[in-house]
Amino acid sequence: MTIRTMSRSDVPAVATLEREIYPEPWSARIFFDELAQSNRTYIVVVNDGEILGYGGVMLIEDDAHITTLAVVPGFRRMRLGTRILLALVEKALAGGARHLTLEVRATNTDAQKLYERFGFGPVGKRKGYYAGEDAIVMWALDVDADEYGGLLDEIRLSLGREAA
Ligand SMILES: CC(C)(COP(=O)(O)OP(=O)(O)OC[C@H]1O[C@@H](n2cnc3c(N)ncnc32)[C@H](O)[C@@H]1OP(=O)(O)O)[C@@H](O)C(=O)NCCC(=O)NCCS
């Protein structure tokens, strides 16, 4: 299993997964546009040539916004989401991020639990952000501080990974 940067040639497969996973899927065009932006990083987890998950991060000044995160249904609860999010946070930190943010469906408590493990906490709500559903806005602040580095080390240890 490898984690690597998403390339343009991955986009058709990612867009297919996107349609299976999300009620309001991003189109292939949106992914192509995202990959063309210099302040975005998209990654995929691949096993035997098959994409099992993907995620993205956008850096604006010192705020990094997790734009998407998904694992294919048959491979959930195997820490792939954690691996992808860790890789995105590492990219964000390498790019100079000091704070992380994201939106998540108010009903998506599974994803919220994952984000809480990465130090995200709810700070507000965007009413009707998704069709017919509110979004919870979550932030993890001061991720450039030693304390957050310690949290990431614990996550790496739990994955059996060496500290970056
Ligand atoms: C959210 C998502 C990416 C998690 O991926 P994953 O690979 O299953 O996550 P992990 O195995 O790394 O889970 C890490 C932790 O998150 C929490 N978690 C994840 N899925 C959970 C679930 N179904 N129920 C309860 N807790 C869950 C748990 O705390 C879990 O740790 P544990 O397994 O030790 O209890 C995946 O469920 C998914 O793709 N969902 C659909 C798309 C989506 O909602 N994306 C987020 C949009 S904001």
What does this structure look like?
The structure is a single chain. The protein has one domain: Aminopeptidase. The longest helix is centred in the middle third of the chain and has 15 residues, at 80-94. A hairpin with a 2-residue loop joins strand 3 and strand 4 (63-71). The model has no long low-confidence stretch (mean pLDDT 96). The relative contact order is 0.13. With 164 residues, the protein is of the alpha+beta class. Helix content is 34%, strand content 35%. It is globular and about 40 Å long. The protein has 5 helices and 7 strands. It has a 7-stranded mixed sheet, with helices on both faces. Bound molecules: coenzyme A. The site of coenzyme A has 18 residues, from strand 4, helix 3 and helix 4.
